Amino acid sequence: MENNQLNEGLENSSPKSLYDKITGSMLLKIFVIFFLTIILLIPMALIGDLISERKQRETQVSTEIARKWGLEQVVSTPVIAVPYDAVHETIKPTTDGKQTTERIVVKEWAFLLPENSAITAEVQPEPLKRGIFQAIVYNAKVTVKGNFKPFDLTKLDVPATDLKWNEAKMVFGIQDTKGLSANPNVQWNGQGFPMDKYFQELDLFTNNLTTNLNLTGNEDLNKPFQITMDLKGSKSLNFLPLAKQTTIHASGNWANPSFNGNFLPEDREVNETFRANWSIPDFNRKLAQQWTGEPVALYNFLGVDLASEDVQMTDFPEPKVVGSAESSDKLTSNDYDMVQINFLPNVNNYQKATRVTKYGALVIALTFISLIFMEIIKKQRVHLIQYVLIGFAMVLFYALLLAISEHIGFNLAYLLAAVATILLIATFVRAITKDGKSAWIFGAILALFYTFIFVLLQLRDYSLIVGTVGLFIILAVLMRLSTKINWYQFEK
User: Taxonomically, which superkingdom (predicted)?
Assistant: First the structure.
């Protein structure tokens, strides 16, 4: 009897191991759980990489679909080009030490932009699927009409007699000719003209369509024009306003258009369909009304989403000088100088999944804090291994959300993933504590956290204020609960 009591006393007085101190001391346990939360950021980062990988795969599939259907289209107003022979003199040394003047005749052009132009586009976007991925493509009925005025010969540095009026051409550009369903219908002064895409001397646009006007003189330019085409494209439809006064009217059956570029609509109406109007004067144009010189591309189009925060002006190449005089109003344009209508998908699963993962550390931390409070208040110990398992279950929620959202959409996937995770953790807590009431209370707390995050996702403009107020309320509740706990007992 005495020996047994002596053995028990020795066991009780024996020093505890480091593991026993960590698992037995609540304060040490809190610090360990804090570091566990930080460690769980590693698999959260891997989930973020997985989302980026799937988003990249979606982009690849969308690009493949667009390449076969039609790329992002750029529709410009036409340009008239009249050729002339320019003589360039160069001085070269001769073998006897003297100099000689060599004259070289080069074909150059006089370019003229429209006086006014009206662009009308009726767009029918639709999602085109391949497997679980899709791309937004469209069919558009585009009409470009307007009129030119003659050259101001007093400001043109070429005599009118040198201009070859019978070789004058009207040049019209689009981004991807594969998107043309039929040959464009071109009219000049009410008369139809065929368009030629094989004329390579005038490389003003990405793809050039030219027509011979057979003019007799400068006054023949004072005529109206009209170009009509059926155009296929994907993701966005862009317009390059080159006229002295350009008006654009676009309409379509898409509920989620994004209007970008340097010019926002003067008026718009968006519901299940959209309608928007622009009126753009030449003050916002980089090009002069007329210029002379060799042909230079009038724009560089990268096809970027101008609403994206990732787009920087440094992404665009340096503008080239257009024409013979190096002036600020004779530079090439880029995406920012256009009117851009982006046809966004109704739901961007990967964008929302990325936003959800940004709240991952917060949800994990709040869950662990709630579990610690439950452990202290209920006086029911939860092992560190069980904290680890609960943490991994919460990380797995994001992988589950990503996988399901690719098939049934984000909102329903969020509901299913959240319910599955809550049930898994709640039943696990019930098995640990042997207390159904505690488990369901903890499950309700988790449901509150996931609902809070889902609401923040829906409130783009008000997410900061709602999120801050929500965290303030959570902190107030935790502070209130902490006053009911004798924290000094853990020092004994």
Answer: Bacteria
User: Residue 115: is its pLDDT beyond 80?
Assistant: yes
Do 402 and 427 fall into the same domain?
yes
Instruction: Find tokens 């101190």 and name the residue.
Output: 21
Provide CB contacts within 8 A for 414, sequence distance 6+: 356, 401, 405, 450, 454
Q: What is the mean pLDDT of residues 103-131?
A: 90
Q: How far is CA 432 from CA 179, 305, 425, 439, 446, in A?
A: 63, 51, 10, 9, 17
Q: How far is CA 400 from CA 40, 172, 419, 492, in A?
A: 16, 50, 11, 43
If one compares 492 and 191, the residue with the highest pLDDT of the two is 191
Residue whose pair of structure tokens reads 């003047």 in the numeric block? 101
In 10 A of CB 58, how many CB atoms? 19
401 and 331 together in one domain: no
Instruction: Give the model confidence (pLDDT) of 150-188 as tens digits.
Output: 999 888 888 888 899 999 999 988 888 888 888 888 899
Tracing tokens 């966004």 back to the chain, one arrives at 344
**pTM of the predicted model, to two decimals?**
0.77
Sheet architecture: strand order including 99-112? 207-212, 169-174, 79-93, 99-112, 290-293
Longest dimension (CA), the chain: 129
User: What's the length of the chain?
Assistant: 492
Report the candidate in 142, 141, 145 with the shortest Cα–Cα distance to residue 117. 145
| Residue % of the chain over a pLDDT of 90 | 31
User: What is the model's pLDDT at position 205?
Assistant: 87
| Ramachandran area for residue 323 (φ above 0: left; ψ -120 to 50: alpha; else beta) | left
Residue 178: inside a domain: yes
Q: Mean pLDDT highest for which of 124-138, 320-334, 476-490?
A: 124-138
Q: Indicate the number of domains in the chain.
A: 2
